[in-house]
Write a structure and sequence with these properties.
360 residues, alpha/beta, Rossmann fold, 2 domains, 16 helices, 57% helix, HD_domain, HD/PDEase_dom, HDIG_dom, Ribonuclease Y
Length: 360
């Protein structure tokens, strides 16, 4: 049996104690209430023992279940009833198996052991299953965020946090190369770019020795940096040739649009808004939208700008082939005083020997 623990999520503390005792006879078990932070360590499977008729409970489970799906871990739901609404909600959360009310502890334990063993066997047969699951889940979360931004709905903070954690976990476990190759197997280039920049930001933060919390800040800002493109006409975003001056002017509105969009919603910090608005600013003042220069551009913005430019150069575009890593690096070196020289030098170590993800 692989190392790790069963995570039991329950809204009934008394029942949770009894269930945990029964599970622990076969597998290590930890208990959390809905909305409580996930315990550190490797989750082998999740047991959900919660009523799914409360929207606040469902919302509190979103981040946890995104992590479960991204890790390609099974989820067993202990149903309180078998109505079609309950079953649909459980499946939407990602339940691998649903047990009816009053299921015996012996059946529960046997089902859990079976799920964990099947999951371990699948991962042994196919080592790439987790990175693909992470990419699929991250793409789904970013798609939802952009769709919300495009339609004027509030962005889900749970989805932002879950997406950021998935990127950090994927980079930590599989590395930037595997992450890039996997996300570029999908087709939506706007979302791919956001995930690519977030991946580069995650590895860059690691190389710079950032603490996990600071890695999270940087990766989260990178994930959201292009959210303003949700309001740019798709015909401009995917145009297979150079943009006209008017189209270019429209495209260059996306940083300000994105920052205004997030500022109109509660919960987005000033650092994130700064990155979203200013990631196209350059140290010599030639960037946009505000023509900032030198010390007016914060370190977090400088970091994301480097990741953004490198990602853009090495990604496929409708109007050009991707550059190889060495070619992209040469272009960035030739930008001279537009980029932070010290950070650019540090960034080089993250892309040494890196293949072009979209061409691999």
């Amino acid at each position: 049996m692989p190392d790790g623990f069963i995570l039991l999520v329950s809204d009934d503390p008394k029942k949770a104690h009894s269930l945990a005792h029964s599970i622990t006879c076969h597998l290590p078990c930890r208990v959390a209430a809905p909305g409580q932070r996930r315990p550190a360590g490797t989750v082998l499977a999740v047991v959900l023992d919660v009523a799914l008729d409360d929207p606040s409970i469902l919302a509190s489970l979103r981040g946890l279940m995104s992590h479960v799906r991204a890790c390609a871990r099974p989820c067993l739901y202990l149903a309180r009833d078998l109505t079609s609404a309950t079953l649909a909600r459980a499946r939407a959360l990602g339940a691998s198996r649903i047990l009816p009310p009053f299921t015996s502890r012996a059946v529960l334990s046997a089902a859990l052991i079976d799920l964990v063993q099947l999951c371990a066997a699948e991962r042994a047969r196919e080592p790439g299953v987790q990175i693909r699951a992470q990419a699929v889940e991250a793409c789904a979360l970013v798609t939802g965020l952009f769709d919300a931004a495009g339609s004027g709905r509030a962005l889900s903070h749970e989805d932002v946090e879950a997406g950021t954690e998935i990127v950090l976990d994927a980079i930590s476990e599989a590395g930037i190369q595997a992450w890039l190759e996997t996300i570029w197997s999908h087709q939506s280039e706007v979302y791919q770019h956001s995930l690519s920049v977030a991946g580069h930001a995650a590895i860059f933060a690691s190389v710079l020795g950032f603490r996990r919390s600071d890695q999270h800040r940087l990766a989260r800002a990178a994930l959201l940096h292009d959210v303003g493109k949700a309001k740019i006409p798709r015909a401009i975003l995917v145009k297979p040739s150079s943009l006209t001056p008017d189209e270019l002017a429209t495209m260059r509105r996306h940083p300000a649009i994105g920052a205004d969009l997030l500022a109109a919603q509660p919960g987005f910090d000033a650092e994130t808004l700064d990155v979203v608005r200013h990631h196209h600013e350059l140290l010599d003042g030639s960037g946009y939208p505000d023509g900032l220069q030198g010390r007016e551009i914060t370190d977090l913005v400088r970091l994301v700008t480097i990741c953004d430019i490198y990602s853009a150069l090495t990604e496929r575009r409708p109007y050009r082939a991707p550059l190889r890593a060495a070619e992209a690096w040469s272009v960035m070196e030739q930008m001279g005083g537009k980029l932070d020289a010290a950070l650019l030098k540090a960034f080089r170590s993250t892309v040494t020997d890196l293949r072009t993800a979209s061409a691999a």
